[in-house]
Amino acid sequence: MDYRSLIAEVPDYPKPGISFKDLSPLLASPPAFRDAVAALAAPFRGQGVEAVLAAEARGFLWGGAVAHVLGAGLVPIRKPRKLPRPTYSATYALEYGTDELHVHVDAVKAGGLVLIVDDVLATGGTARAMLDLAGRLNARVAGLAFVIELSFLDGRAKLAPAPVHSLVRY
């Protein structure tokens, strides 16, 4: 399927010089969404993935669907003060400052196999933070799956040696 034709490019959003990749048209197309979810899950079928870790907010859309296909649970990775019970946190760099992600300390059993899913791999900061959280949970990581990879930003390098799967590369 030609996913690229269903990704709207929005120039100068959220600031001048950025070409935002909007996945809304792909999400709105039932056959394309169904196919993309299956394609994200495909490399990890039969591996025994127990949980999908997905970051808010757009990652939840993809992570929940992939978890369903794999017969796995969904673990929400949230911003500070969004989860009600004790959490582990990971801080990561932004262009101007830092941000933080949290996961419940009991989100997966030690040694459980997890898959990290998000919409876009850019600089790798968010994905690296999710990998770090998986490590804090003592989980094994099957890999990371993204709809879009902005390969010119080299985020994949921050995730080595974990396997990275992406559907569309720019």
Mean pLDDT: 96
Total helices: the number is 4
Question: How much helix, percentage-wise, in residues?
Answer: 10-25%
N-end to C-end Cα span: 16 Å
Describe this structure in words.
The structure is a single chain. By secondary structure, the chain is an alpha/beta fold. The chain is about 25% helix and about 35% strand. The chain has 4 helices and 9 strands. The protein has helices at about 25-30, 30-40, 60-70, 125-135; strands at about 10, 20, 50-55, 75, 85-95, 95-105, 115-120, 140-150, 165-170. A 5-stranded parallel β-sheet has the order 4-3-7-8-9, sandwiched between helices. A two-stranded antiparallel sheet has the order 1-2. Strand 5 and strand 6 form a beta hairpin. Helix 2 crosses helix 3 (about 60-70). The longest helix has 13 residues, at about 60-70. The relative contact order is 0.17.
What attributes characterize this protein structure?
4 helices; five-stranded parallel sheet; alpha/beta; 170 residues; two-stranded antiparallel sheet
Q: What's the SSE blueprint?
A:
Elements: E1 8-11, E2 19-22, H1 24-28, H2 30-41, E3 51-55, H3 58-70, E4 73-77, E5 87-94, E6 97-104, E7 113-121, H4 125-136, E8 140-149, E9 164-169
Parallel strand pairs: 3-4, 3-7, 7-8, 8-9
Antiparallel strand pairs: 1-2, 5-6
Would you kindly provide a brief summary of this structure?
By secondary structure, the chain is an alpha/beta fold. Helix content is 25%, strand content 35%. It is globular, with a radius of gyration of 15 Å.
